[in-house]
Specification:
Blueprint lengths: L1 E17 L5 E20 L4 E3 L8 H11 L7 E6 L10 H13 L6 H8 L3 H4 L5 E4 L4 E4 L7 E5 L7 H10 L6 H15 L17 H7 L3 H10 L4 E4 L6 E5 L2 H9 L9 E3 L6
Parallel strand pairs: 3-4
Antiparallel strand pairs: 1-2, 2-4, 2-5, 5-6, 7-9, 7-10, 8-9
Length: 278
């Protein structure tokens, strides 16, 4: 069985203050993209997760172990992950991979939603990838209608950025909004995106509160954001906790032309759009 695990783009991210459990309240719009990891699941003599591009613990291995603990009775499997989503880039690649395996087993194991929440804040939203208004620390997912087509240019950084370090830097900088403000913003996002409009129709709401922290840790991100603006992006931001910068364009053709104009310094730019399968 071959599975797709689409990247997710944080069209915006509004940050709350730390909760008692150490996590942060947030309000965000998650959008799945056409860029995706490829996962092959096949029978094996024992459970095994193979991902040559990721060293150390893998979230898919944790998902597989969690499924077994919940009684997943399928024969042992070998799960091989072909990474196409940049690693530690703020695009949710690891979470998407784990969620893809949970989708595969969902008919055989109950309450995979609870397991998804245990695995990480971004995993629940990727169980059924779709444009979604996300709240809590990522576990409250409200699906919205698919957006009108648009194009995206992604500029990953040469090295990843730790999500934990970015949130810690946000706390050091004193970032974070009051709960009432977060709820008001969520209502605005729901109204703006709820009719299936392009994000360009509500560009004034596309804000990333974590950008200040990401730029503090990795100032070079600012050069990528500026390059996207110079290339004609209607909106240019940092996605999630970074370090990937993204620019939004009217369509794929415009995004492709912009990527071609960025020059050799940004030769790794990726052109994508909202995932048409969702």
């Amino acid at each position: 069985m071959t599975l797709r695990a689409p990247a997710k783009l944080n069209l915006c991210l509004y940050l709350g203050r730390p909760r008692d459990d150490g996590l942060h309240e947030l309000r965000s719009l998650f959008c799945p993209l056409t860029i995706s990891d490829r996962i092959v699941v096949e029978e094996a003599e024992e459970d095994e997760v193979v991902c040559p591009d990721v060293q150390g613990p893998n979230l898919v291995a944790a998902a597989l172990a969690g499924l077994r603990e919940r009684g997943w009775g399928r024969e042992p499997v070998r799960v091989e992950i072909e990474k196409r989503i940049p690693v530690a880039a703020g695009l949710g690649g690891g979470s998407a991979d784990a969620a893809a395996l949970l989708r595969f087993a969902r008919g055989d194991v109950g309450d995979v939603e609870a397991l998804a929440a245990e695995l990480g804040a971004d995993v629940p939203s990727q169980l059924d990838p779709a444009l979604a208004l996300v709240a809590g620390s990522g576990e409250v997912v409200e699906p919205l209608p698919p957006p009108r087509h648009f194009g995206v240019v992604l500029i990953p950084d040469e090295s990843g950025l730790s999500t934990g370090e970015v949130y810690a830097e946000a706390d050091r900088l004193g970032l974070g909004r009051d709960p009432a403000e977060l709820d008001s913003i969520a209502a605005q996002l729901r109204e703006a995106a709820g009719g299936g409009a392009s994000p360009l129709a509500y560009r004034e709401l596309l804000v990333n509160d974590l950008a200040h922290a990401a730029l503090s840790l990795r100032p070079s991100i600012g050069s990528a954001v500026s390059a996207l603006k110079d290339a004609g992006a209607a909106v240019a931001l940092v996605t999630g906790s970074g370090p990937t910068a993204f620019g939004i364009f009217e369509d794929i053709a415009a995004a492709d032309a912009a990527a071609g104009s960025l020059g050799p310094h940004f030769a790794g730019a990726i052109v994508a759009g909202p995932d048409p399968e969702r």
